[in-house]
Amino acid sequence: MSREAILEDLRKKVEGCRKCDLWRTRNRIVFGEGPADAEVMIVGLGPGRQEDLQGRPFVGAAGKFLDQLLSEAGLSRDRIYITNVIKCFLPGNRATEEHVKACTPYLDQQIEVIRPKLIIALGNIAACYLLGKFGLRCEPMEKIHGRAYDVSSLMLSLRIVPMYHPASALRNPGLRDKLIEDWRELGRTLGDLAPAS
Ligand code: URA
Ligand code: SF4
């Protein structure tokens, strides 16, 4: 089965998912979008209102800023696979441990199928989940933002870069310049990623 077909099957599963209480308040799942063989993945927290209505990740205000950050790094959105830790609308943007536990098997499968070289983890929850998955200890975002963590497991070998969530810069304008600088720096290091295998 092709990677596209595996992802399509998984999307159908998520469409019928009722593993946590968030299914009750969703309009549409936000599964994720992008090439099934993308070298770069972006993982946010979960859908906001706009995303819930459109069924697409990062199409609201935070998405607009993310688009700017991508261009600061010289990345083009259509070559990236963008998804979230949580696939259903998150009221108040608050995810509980139960939500994360219930939903991350889907993210794990997306990562296993896509096999990216780089995952940019937006915000604490995405960063801590992904670092933890590879046995690394999570630290506060003030400390880890912009750092490159090269990790590997039996199946995967990739780089994780935690970043402040773009929505946090909308709430706290002081973070805006830090984010822009982190993404520019990320852009300068992209050429160091492992060559295509
Ligand atoms: N914030 C997220 O974490 N994900 C989205 O898709 C949109 C906003
Ligand atoms: Fe299922 Fe995830 Fe939606 Fe919960 S948030 S119902 S686990 S898809």
Structure description:
With 197 residues, this protein is of the alpha/beta class. The chain has a single domain, classed as Uracil-DNA glycosylase-like domain (Uracil-DNA Glycosylase, subunit E, 3-Layer(aba) Sandwich), CATH 3.40.470. 43% of the residues lie in helices and 13% in strands. The chain has a five-stranded mixed sheet, sandwiched between helices. β4 (149-152) and β5 form a beta hairpin. The structure holds uracil (URA) and iron/sulfur cluster.
Total number of strands: 5
* DSSP strand content: 5-15%
CATH level-3 fold name: Uracil-DNA Glycosylase, subunit E
CATH class: Alpha Beta
Largest sheet: 5 strands, mixed
Please indicate the count of domains: 1
Order of helices and strands: HEHHEHEHHEEHH
Helix content, binned percent: 40-55%
Shape, per Cα inertia axes: globular
How far apart the termini lie comes to 20 Å
Tally the helices: 8
CATH architecture: 3-Layer(aba) Sandwich
Distinct small-molecule ligands in the complex: uracil, iron/sulfur cluster
Q: Give me the oligomer status.
A: single chain
Radius of gyration (CA) equals 16 Å
Mean pLDDT: 96
Question: What structural category do the secondary elements indicate?
Answer: alpha/beta
Write out key terms for the chains shown.
single chain; 8 helices; five-stranded mixed beta sheet; binds iron/sulfur cluster; alpha/beta; 197 residues; binds uracil; Uracil-DNA Glycosylase, subunit E
What is the topology?
Elements: H1 3-15, E1 40-44, H2 49-54, H3 61-73, E2 80-84, H4 97-114, E3 118-122, H5 123-133, H6 141-144, E4 149-152, E5 157-163, H7 166-171, H8 176-189
The structure holds uracil and iron/sulfur cluster.
Iron/sulfur cluster is lined by residues 14, 17-20, 22-23, 29, 86-88, 99, 102-103.
